[in-house]
Write a structure and sequence with these properties.
The protein is mainly alpha-helical. It has seven helices and no strands.
């Protein structure tokens, strides 16, 4: 299990949670429904972990040369196992978005929430599978991912 936590850079997950919590605070003026926070933390954390893990999946050939100790190039986790794990994270994240509507703790439509979530997922793919290599575009994509995570809390 520790290897999967290494794959998704788990110690840094709170940075994503902070982004979405900031969105909640801004949107509510500080009058936060506390039932929202655990669900929002879960969505942000699973999206972050998906993004970090899929980044390693995209860079596994490059990492064989410059980061051979990472879990994919070292063979600690197979590409298939990592892909299944990342797909599960993505499904769990989507389930969290659905749970926001089910709990009725946040204004807005389910379609809007899934639109923001889908935009974040799309930007993660764009960044990981080519965007980060384009000068000036990579940081823009990453900023948009972080901004989208902020919007999850709005």
């Amino acid at each position: 299990m520790f290897s999967y936590l290494r794959l998704v850079r788990f110690p840094l997950v709170l940075t994503a949670v902070a982004d979405s919590f900031a969105g909640v605070v801004v949107a509510t003026g500080g009058a936060v429904d506390l039932r929202l926070l655990p669900v929002l933390a879960f969505i942000s954390a699973t999206l972050y972990c998906f993004g970090m893990g899929s980044n390693d999946l995209a860079d596994r050939e490059r990492d064989r040369e410059i980061h051979p100790d990472r879990v994919l190039p070292s063979g600690v986790i197979s590409v298939t196992s990592a892909s299944v794990f990342l797909f599960i994270l993505l499904l769990l994240s989507a389930g969290g978005v659905y749970a926001l509507s089910w709990l009725g703790v946040q204004e807005g439509s389910l379609g809007t929430r899934f639109g923001v979530w889908g935009a974040i997922v799309g930007l993660i793919f764009l960044y990981n599978y080519g965007g980060k290599k384009l000068q000036g575009v990579g940081p823009l994509f990453m900023g948009l991912v972080r901004g989208g995570n902020f919007l999850l809390g709005v």
